[in-house]
Specification:
The complex is a heterodimer.
Chain A lengths: L9 H14 L4 E7 H10 L1 H4 L4 E8 L1 H4 L2 H11 L4 E5 L13 H6 L3 E4 L3 H10 L4 E8 L4 H14 L4 E8 L1 H10 L7 E5 H7 L5 H7 L3 E4 L3 H17 L4 E3 L11 H10 E8 L3 E10 L8 H4 L15 H5 L31 H7 L9
Parallel strand pairs in A: 1-2, 1-7, 3-4, 3-5, 5-6, 7-8, 8-9
Antiparallel strand pairs in A: 6-11, 10-11
Chain B lengths: L6 E7 L8 E6 L2 E6 L11 E5 L2 E5 L2 H23 L2
Antiparallel strand pairs in B: 1-2, 1-4, 2-3, 4-5
C-alpha cells in the first residue's frame, strides 16, 4: 500500500458518491476549510459526482491568502534593506503587496530566496553571519512546529542574525468566526486533516457542541474528501453534530505531542488580522517574550504604512464561503494567476486559482 | 503549505539531541532529507507525512485499510440485494 493511488481509485470514489446520493434527502451546505482540499475537489471534479442537494463552499484555509497585506509590505520592506536576505515559501513571492510583491523586490535586486523548510533559512543565517536573514513564517498549525523549531535552533546556536516575520494563523477560531457571521450558511465542516495531525481534534469538540454543527476531520485525496462528505451528510441527515475522524490513518485525537511542545515553547496565541476578513481574537501565534528578540518586526522597527487593498478584489467573501470565485467581476479577466489582484488567485491553495486552473469559469457545475 | 503525500523512511540518523533526529524519506522515487524530531519512534520502512521538511506523523496501515474493507462490504451487500428476487 502506497497510501496515494488507492485513494484516487475511480471505482471506489463512484461507490462513495453513490452512497451519498442514496442517503441525501434535502439541501446541505458543507465547507471544506483547507485550500489544499479545495484544489483536490476542483481538480478531480468531485462536485460533479455529488447530488444537486450538496453544495460545497470553500473556506479560509489558505495561509498565503489570509496573510495581511501589511505583512507582505513589511516583508518587501525587509527584503529591500541593504544586506538583508528574505527567505520564504515560494507561494508568497507573487502575492501582490500595496505597491509591489516579493518577486518585484527580487527583480529590483533584493536577495529573496525560496526555501523548502524553515531550517534552510537557519542554514543561510549560519553561513552568512554578516547578513540579516529573515524567514517569513506563514502558515497554519501544520507549519508552526517547523517554524518554531527553526527559532529554537537559532536560539540554541546563538544565531543573532536570524529572525522571523510571523504570520501564523489557527483554524478553530476561524471556524468560529465563520459560524458567528450573520450570513453564515455553512451547516457542516470538513476539518483540515493535516492541521489535525499536529493538534489532534479535541479543540473542535466544543465548537461542534456549541454551534450544533458536524465536523469531520478529512484527508486530501479524492476518496477522502467524498468519504468525509458522506460522513458529514450522514450526520446532517440524522440530526447529529459530532466531531468524526475520516483521516484516522494520519490523525489521532491528541495529535503530535512533541510538535505541540515546541510550538508552545516558542509561540503563544494572539489576536490576528486575516486578510479580507478582519481581526479574529486568539487566531494567531506570536513569539513568546523569551524568543521575542527573533521577531523581525521588532528588530527592524517596522510600522504599517497604510496598506492599500485592490478595491475590485472580493477575496474576503470568497474566503468566508459567501461568494464563489466566478461571482467576482474581475475573475479571469482583470484577475488571473499571471496578473493577480488578490492572493487567492496566486496561491496553490487559493480557491480562485483552483477555479481558474481547472476551468470552472462560470459556474460550479460544468 | 498543508499539502503532503506519504513517503517511506529509508535511513535514520540519530543525534544526542532528540530535536536533531533526521532521516531520508522516499517520495515515489524522490529522496529528501527530513527532520524526524517530532517522531521519536518512527522506524525505517514507516510511511510519514512531511510538512516543510518536518515529518509530523506516521501513516497507520490498519486504519488506512478500513475504508476499502467497508467499500468491499457495501459492494457485496449490493450484489446480494441485486441477486434477490
Amino acid at each position: 500500500m502506497k497510501f496515494v493511488d488507492e485513494y484516487r481509485d475511480r471505482k471506489a470514489v463512484d461507490q462513495v458518491a453513490e452512497e451519498i446520493r442514496r442517503t441525501v434527502t434535502r439541501p446541505w451546505t458543507i465547507m471544506e476549510v483547507c485550500g489544499g482540499q479545495t484544489h483536490t475537489i476542483l481538480k478531480s471534479g468531485l462536485e460533479d459526482l455529488l447530488p444537486p442537494e450538496i453544495t460545497l463552499v470553500h473556506g479560509p484555509g489558505c495561509p498565503v491568502c489570509v496573510t495581511p497585506l501589511e505583512l507582505i509590505d513589511k516583508a518587501v520592506a525587509i527584503a529591500l534593506r541593504p544586506g538583508a536576505i528574505l527567505c520564504s515559501f515560494g507561494d508568497m513571492l507573487r502575492v501582490p503587496g500595496s505597491t509591489k510583491s516579493l518577486f518585484d523586490a527580487k527583480a529590483e535586486g533584493a536577495d529573496v530566496r525560496v526555501v523548502y523548510s524553515p531550517v534552510d533559512a537557519v542554514k543561510v543565517a549560519r553561513e552568512k553571519p554578516e547578513r540579516q536573514v529573515v524567514f517569513f513564517a506563514v502558515g497554519f498549525e501544520t507549519t508552526a512546529p517547523g517554524n518554531a523549531m527553526a527559532v529554537w535552533q537559532a536560539a540554541r546556536e546563538g544565531l543573532e542574525n536570524f529572525s522571523v516575520l510571523v504570520a501564523h494563523v489557527l483554524v478553530p477560531p476561524a471556524i468560529e468566526a465563520i459560524l458567528s457571521a450573520p450570513a453564515c450558511r455553512v451547516q457542516a465542516f470538513l476539518a483540515p486533516g493535516h492541521v489535525c495531525t499536529v493538534v489532534g481534534f479535541e479543540q473542535y469538540e466544543p465548537i461542534a457542541q456549541r454551534y450544533r454543527v458536524p465536523i469531520v476531520v478529512t484527508g486530501f485525496e479524492p476518496l477522502d474528501l467524498l468519504e468525509g462528505t458522506r460522513m458529514a451528510v450522514a450526520q446532517l441527515e440524522s440530526g447529529r453534530a459530532e466531531v468524526e475522524n475520516q483521516y484516522s490513518r494520519a490523525v489521532t485525537r491528541k495529535g503530535n505531542r512533541a510538535a505541540q511542545k515546541v510550538v508552545a515553547e516558542v509561540f503563544e496565541a494572539a489576536n490576528r488580522q486575516w486578510r479580507g476578513i478582519g481581526e479574529i481574537p486568539g487566531s494567531g501565534l506570536r513569539l513568546r517574550e523569551t524568543y521575542r528578540r527573533f521577531d523581525a518586526e521588532e528588530r527592524f522597527a517596522l510600522t504599517a504604512a497604510g496598506a492599500i487593498e485592490s478595491p475590485e478584489c472580493i477575496s474576503g467573501l470568497v474566503l468566508q464561503g459567501l461568494k464563489k470565485p466566478f461571482e467576482c467581476p474581475a475573475f479571469g479577466t482583470k484577475c488571473t494567476p499571471e496578473r493577480p489582484l488578490g492572493a487567492p488567485m496566486v496561491s496553490s491553495e487559493g480557491a480562485c486559482a483552483a477555479y481558474y486552473l481547472y476551468g470552472r469559469h462560470r459556474h460550479g457545475r460544468v | 503549505m498543508c499539502l503532503a503525500i506519504p513517503g517511506k523512511i529509508t535511513e535514520i540518523t540519530e543525534d544526542a539531541e532528540p530535536a536533531l533526529r533526521r532521516g531520508k524519506v522516499d517520495f515515489a522515487g524522490v529522496k529528501k532529507e527530513v527532520s524526524l524530531a517530532f517522531l521519536p519512534d518512527a522506524a525505517i520502512g514507516d510511511y510519514v507525512l512531511v510538512h516543510a521538511g518536518f515529518a509530523l506523523n506516521t501513516v497507520d496501515e490498519d486504519e488506512a485499510r478500513k475504508i476499502f474493507a467497508h467499500l468491499e462490504e457495501m459492494a457485496e451487500l449490493e450484489e446480494a440485494a441485486g441477486d434477490a428476487p
